[in-house]
Amino acid sequence: IVKNESYEDTTAKSGVYYKYAVRALNAAGLSPYNGGKVIKRVATPENITVANGTNAIAVKWNAVQNATAYRVYRKALGDDTWTYLKTVKTNSYADKDVTSGIDYIYTVRALSGNVYSNFLPGIQIRRLDIAKLKTAKSTAEGIYIDFEPVEGATGYNIYRKVGNGAWTSSTYLGAIKTTRSHTY
């Protein structure tokens, strides 16, 4: 029994059709059924993550039960309107049409047949290009490296490895926005 004119069924499962009806109640009893409405619930994708990849921004999310596809949307920070990017059947998407230094926001809607889930507010990321090493040379003090600045970067991690070993971060340079060099 509810006392206002709305109700949210939080037990409804994603991908299932439900029919809902309402009957009014007072001391004299119940009103007749109103005929009802049929609706299919599609859950909203959760745990959306974004990451800078080699040539794209990688967008991932948790799979939604009974979803048949997902629609991926993007907008630049400050934009009011979402841009539809693509419908995919997996729970990931690589957005290759991005510009370094731009803050993007991504969201995803699940589909089950022709029924869509709601939007989540969106996850923000700043696109960073690959840092390009210009020079690396031996010096009296160690190894000197020089690299191009990356639009939108606030700092750089320097990695090195020996032979076929794993990459290790040897140092972190603070907020740098110009061409940088460092000696190890």
Can you walk me through this structure?
The C terminus is likely disordered. It is built from no helices and 17 strands. The chain starts with 15 loop residues before the first strand and ends with a strand. It is elongated. With 184 residues, the protein is an all-beta fold. Strands 7, 8, 10, 11 and 12 form a five-stranded antiparallel β-sheet that branches. β5 and β6 form a beta hairpin.
Secondary-structure blueprint of this entry?
Elements: E1 16-20, E2 25-26, E3 29-30, E4 37-41, E5 49-52, E6 57-60, E7 69-76, E8 83-88, E9 92-95, E10 103-112, E11 115-116, E12 123-126, E13 133-138, E14 143-147, E15 156-160, E16 168-173, E17 180-183
Antiparallel strand pairs: 1-4, 2-3, 5-6, 6-9, 7-8, 7-10, 10-11, 10-12, 13-14, 14-17, 15-16
Strand count: 17
Identify the overall geometry. elongated
Proportion of residues in β-strands: 35-45%
Euclidean distance between termini CA atoms? 72 Å
Taking pLDDT < 50 over at least 5 consecutive residues as the criterion, the unreliable ranges are 173-184
Please tell me the overall pLDDT: 85
